[in-house]
Amino acid sequence: MNFKDLARVEIGGRTICLDTSGDVSYISHAHSDHVSGKRKGEVVASEPTLSISGVSYSSRLVHESIRLHKAGHMLGATQIEIIRDGGNFVYTGDFSIADGFTYKGADIIEADELLIESTYGSPEYHFPKKEDIAEQLRREVLSRLKYGNVIFAVYAKGKSQELIKMLNEFCGITPIVGPEVAHVSEIYVRHGQHLSFVGSHSEDASDMFRDNFVGIIPKSQFRPELRMRLMQHYRKPCYFGSLSGWNVKFASDVYDIALPLSDHADFNDLVEYVDHSSPKKVYVFGAFAEGLAGALRLRGYNSVAVR
Ligand SMILES: [Zn+2]
Q1: According to the model, what pLDDT value does residue 241 have?
Q2: Is this structure's pTM higher than 0.85?
Q3: Which pLDDT band, with edges at 50, 70 and 90, does 21 fall under?
Q4: For residue 183, how far is its CA from the centre of ligand 1 (angstroms)?
């Protein structure tokens, strides 16, 4: 059994393709590595996921054998439960059990068969409490903002909105954000999130640029040479920040601030999910799949890593 086979689930003569494109495309959340193409036919996904991902689609499928459950991770992220053969099959996609600042943590679903994504499925990944990270963020940002500008390079979808919320609530700061970050943040606001930010092309931003400011750009636009360009342009120091679970082990020294903020389950959370889900069979995929599947076998589960 491989991931590709498991990710195609037949119900009532239809094939639900999990985070891949096909007859009916299930999109767990709006991150590009789970969207798999912008043009879809029939889809199963939450409304925020469809808005943020920007996919075009013909219709949304609602089926009595399909249930969506919240996955934490980011606005609109879901897990899918499919009732079949007298049992149920659950696919998690990316998820987090802990609440974020802009989302509630995942529901844990009891499953006969569980297909679980293991992004941080190694015991060396243990994430600190988010409130502790927010406190550290406050110290790191405020101490530098006295001397220059602070620019964070983070994912535009999900992580940027967590950062905006932390800056608003823990630092009393309204950041200036790039157009892509502003677009996604506006969708969050339409779904009831209170986020205070200013788009970089707005009139308000041109006033704010005169003082020291905190900016947010998409991670994909970050280049180390930006530091020198911004320092020359604004004639003051420029500090860069990163927020990622990978900073637990691989904090790059191109960043002045590198905090281990993740919107994923860490190793203990993954094990906790499986313990409470109590599946008869577990399929693990993603980074560290072999290690996590082995750890689960030691706990008595019938688990296997799939690619
Ligand atoms: Zn994701």
Answers
A1: 97
A2: yes
A3: confident
A4: 18
User: What are the tokens at 87?
Assistant: 């049992």
Q: pLDDT digit string (tens) for 1-14?
A: 799 999 999 998 89
Q: Taken in order 89, 92, 97, 101, is the CA torsion positive or negative?
A: negative
Does domain 130-259 sit in CATH 3.40.50.1820?
A: no
Rounded to the nearest angstrom, the distance between the alpha carbon of 231 and the centre of ligand 1 is 33
Angstrom distance (rounded) from CA 265 to CA 262: 8
- Distance of CA 204 from the midpoint of ligand 1 (Å): 32
Q: Is 73 exposed, middle or buried (0-12, 13-18, 19+ CB in 10 A)?
A: buried
Q: What is the pLDDT of residue 166?
A: 98
Domain ranges across the chain? 3-124+264-305, 130-259
Distance 158 CA to ligand 1 centre (A): 8
Q: Compute the distance from residue 33 Cα to the ligand 1 centre, in Å.
A: 7
Q: Which CATH architecture has domain 3-124+264-305?
A: 4-Layer Sandwich (3.60)
